[in-house]
């Protein structure tokens, strides 16, 4: 069986370093056989590639790419805490989209993250999801993402 690390390599995807928290929290927490990530911004090497509202300063297509980066950052947080190969499945993805008042394409934006999860995990990546429009996000980020994963039963507590 191919490991998730091997699958990432097949897809030519490298997990980034874990993004440093921008306030008083940790990137991810393990609870029993689950890992819950904190909200992950689309940080690349410590900075945001774009800021502003989706549907105004940021296009939906650009925001979908940023949502993909959020998912990579979330996976990096999981990997750092427990090792990505210990993930049994993805349970839930929650995406927040900083939206212009008339923007209603939040599901399409968060597809950028969901599609990455599907590429990496296949059937084990089928997840419940919320895509929520919000007025503003930290650092004026266009998107933010939370991820919940289930761990394999063989992982020591």
Automatic annotation (TrEMBL):
InterPro entries: Endoribo_LPSP/chorism_mut-like, RutC-like_sf
Pfam families, per the entry: YjgF_endoribonc (PF14588)
Sequence intervals crossing the membrane: none
Alphabetized SUPFAM superfamilies for the sequence: YjgF-like (SSF55298)
Domain Endoribonuclease L-PSP/chorismate mutase-like: 7-148
Xref: PANTHER family: ENDORIBONUCLEASE L-PSP_CHORISMATE MUTASE-LIKE DOMAIN-CONTAINING PROTEIN (PTHR43760:SF1), ENDORIBONUCLEASE-RELATED (PTHR43760)
UniProt-recorded name of the protein: Enamine deaminase RidA, house cleaning of reactive enamine intermediates, YjgF/YER057c/UK114 family
Species in which this protein is naturally found: Corynebacterium timonense
């Amino acid at each position: 069986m191919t490991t998730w690390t091997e699958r990432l390599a097949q897809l030519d995807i490298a997990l980034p370093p874990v993004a440093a928290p921008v306030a008083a929290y940790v990137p991810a927490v393990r609870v029993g056989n689950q890992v819950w990530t904190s909200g992950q911004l689309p940080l690349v090497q410590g900075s945001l590639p774009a800021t502003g509202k989706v549907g105004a300063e940021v296009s939906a297509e650009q925001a979908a790419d940023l949502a993909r980066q959020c998912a990579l950052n979330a996976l990096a947080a999981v990997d750092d805490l427990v090792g990505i190969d210990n993930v049994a499945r993805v349970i839930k993805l929650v995406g927040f989209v900083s939206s212009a008042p008339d923007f209603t394409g939040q599901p399409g934006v968060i597809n950028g993250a969901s599609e990455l999860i599907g590429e990496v995990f296949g059937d084990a990546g089928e997840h419940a999801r919320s895509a929520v429009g919000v007025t503003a996000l930290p650092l004026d980020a266009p998107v933010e993402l939370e991820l919940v994963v289930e761990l394999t039963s063989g992982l020591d507590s």
